Amino acid sequence: VQLQASGGGLVQPGGSLRLSCSVSGTIFKNGGMGWYRRAPGKARELVAAVTSGGSTYYDDSVKGRFLISGDNGKTTVYLQMNRLKPEDTAVYYCNTASPALRVPWGQGTLVTVSS
Questions:
Q1: Using CA atoms, how far apart are residues 18 and 23, in angstroms rounded to an integer?
Q2: Per-residue model confidence (pLDDT) at position 25
Q3: DSSP-derived pairing of the beta strands 109-113 and 90-96
Q4: pLDDT in tens, 32-63
Q5: CB-neighbour burial class of residue 17 (10 A; exposed 0-12, middle 13-18, buried 19+)
Q6: What is the pLDDT of residues 88-111, one digit of tens each?
Q7: Three-state SS string across the chain, please?
Q8: How far apart are CA 80 and CA 17, in angstroms?
C-alpha cells in the first residue's frame, strides 16, 4: 500500500494550493492521517494531522494558513494551503498520523513557492 499525494505545483508567495491524497477508509479510521513535508536539506516533518473523529494538529509554522480535512467517506485527505511562503517549498507527502501504522512513503508532490 502506498499513499500518493497530488496537487503540487509552482505558486507565487501569497498564493494557494490544495493537495489531495487518496487513502483507504480503514487506514484513515485506524491511524488518522497526516501531511508531511521535506524541504531541501531538511528532515521530513509533520505539518498537519487529522483523526477520524475530526481533531486536528498543525505545526506552528503553518497554523492559521493551512487546513487539513477529510471527506466523509474517509477516502480522501486534503491540505488547503493559503498564504504560501517561500519556506513552504518542499515535497509534500501523506501518510498515517500514527507512526505505528505508517505505510511505505509515496513519491510525494512538489510544492514550489517562488516569484
A1: 16
A2: 72
A3: antiparallel
A4: 999 999 999 999 999 999 988 889 999 999 99
A5: buried
A6: 999 999 999 988 888 899 889 999
A7: CCCCEECCEEECCCCCEEEEEECCHHHHHHHCEEEEEECCCCCCEEEEEECCCCCEEECCCCCCCEEEEECCCCCEEEEEECCCCHHHCEEEEEEECCHHHCCCCCCCEEEEECC
A8: 6
Grid coordinates in use for 33?
492521517
- Go through 80-108 and write b for each residue having 16 or more CB atoms within 10 A of its CB, e for each that does not: ebeebeeebbbbbbbbbbeeeeeeebbeb
